[in-house]
């Protein structure tokens, strides 16, 4: 499996107060104008989304893969073929409004541009998937310490030994993110994330990483290692990088995704995804 | 729009204690052997599902329609083309194990057999969708009176003036079920159903039916009228009949669905759909 570039993968967690207060529309305009930085903390309170665009010929397999693996692949919107518009963000252009993209051919990363108009095809169907930034907001609001944020690091992510349920030509391992949680906050962390089933929901595993086939928490496959405080329990959530792992494993002829940490800013508010999703 | 046969639509709510205690496997065997009655209350505590099978050529439109309208169309499983098996029920055969089916050609109801082996096609993709029986169980357990059950009637369902978000060639109105709820139970009813986002979730509307474009609660489009107790508030939930309404409106060349009130018995337990769905 292709390993992503560690340097590029690093998302600086803190943004200046200015970017935190941006509207999603302002944030998209800045990214469209060329700003290429990470989006963690930008337009705080608004929902960020993973992007994966595949040719229409692969769209049914991708949608079915997401339906069969809703924890790692919670679908927030699917565009019509060729359209760069989404109901989740008025006036947005998915080809230009993300800070940085990844372009994949036959499962290999071939480019990381800040604009994909030159790569766009009329048969591309874009999937916007929920992102853990939404449940981190809920955890933080409930007083759960978020260690990787405290430490200014990108969340560590691991390829597990657990295979997703395949769909057509798409298969691949589940990828998880891991957060150390103090035992006294474990109940709150599980409850608050479970109340957000549209954005990964509750954890898929707690405790011994061997239960997911993960060898060494100090060597994540994506992101950065995080330091545990005494007594912290490792808690694992299904991760939106999973469809990228499926692209690497299944090698569709073409795909475009966001670059790690460079998400799509929607107009939706995180709060709208509590329990029900947006009507 | 085709109106379904009122007599056939009537589901007797009470089943004998024997059928209530059946395992899902026993229930499926009885239906396979020709028992054609309604399934309300059968194998209590186990999840029942709406069935809609369409040709593979229409499967992407149907899956996208469900993704775009998750309240009325909560997908529990999608089969591979031609397969009559589902991960939700070991050893089940979707062609024989429901009590009664409806066969549709060009959006018109053409047959209501108890077995669809003669109609089966190798390109059929089956969708199993969540059913309100699951959240009724949760409401009843929390002490909310279920008026139509008390009155031994099928739940009243209404075609609303609210259009679903279309997907490809599929479009149609949202269909809702309505339950009168005493005001002192309204909070519980909303909370308990909201905790089941995988099976319709919380209500889409409360109070004046005109808000949904419904004229007369005494004249439901499917099911039977229910009597209100003094002070009861009408509460409306998105309904799994919606995809049948989409079939009637969009006229795919062929489709098979369950007959109203004659659902598919899965091995899953209702409790497993609280918040997270089945992993």
From TrEMBL, chains A, B:
<dbReference type="InterPro" id="IPR009906">
    <property type="entry name" value="D-Glu_cyclase"/>
</dbReference>
<comment type="similarity">
    <text>Belongs to the D-glutamate cyclase family.</text>
</comment>
<keyword id="KW-0456">Lyase</keyword>
<dbReference type="GO" id="GO:0016829">
    <property type="term" value="F:lyase activity"/>
</dbReference>
<protein>
    <recommendedName>
        <fullName>Putative hydro-lyase S1361_07820</fullName>
        <ecNumber>4.2.1.-</ecNumber>
    </recommendedName>
</protein>
<dbReference type="InterPro" id="IPR016938">
    <property type="entry name" value="UPF0317"/>
</dbReference>
<dbReference type="InterPro" id="IPR038021">
    <property type="entry name" value="Putative_hydro-lyase"/>
</dbReference>
<dbReference type="Pfam" id="PF07286">
    <property type="entry name" value="D-Glu_cyclase"/>
</dbReference>
